[in-house]
What we know:
Elements lengths: L4 E6 L3 H14 L3 E7 H7 L7 E7 L1 H9 L5 E8 L5 E8 L1
Antiparallel strand pairs: 1-5, 2-3, 3-4, 4-5
Amino acid sequence: xxxxxxxxxxxxxxxxxxxxxxxxxxxxxxxxxxxxxxxxxxxxxxxxxxxxxxxxxxxxxxxxxxxxxxxxxxxxxxxxxxxxxxxxxxxxxxx
Length: 95
């Protein structure tokens, strides 16, 4: 782990890995603020990119007072396809 970044290799394909991450967040009552599909963005300008989606999430009840007190809070996870049989979930949580 460098600079708060954790990388975990997934045993599942890209859509399943992303779906499982979103279900875990939902089950824990975590708010998903944004899903950013970088591959779709690349395709919209005629470029190819392996499947890559960033999920921005948090808990407003717990996080808002910390932000108001000046803490930097970033919670996000990127799910990336990295070739046949290799899917990665990268996450960062920083105070």
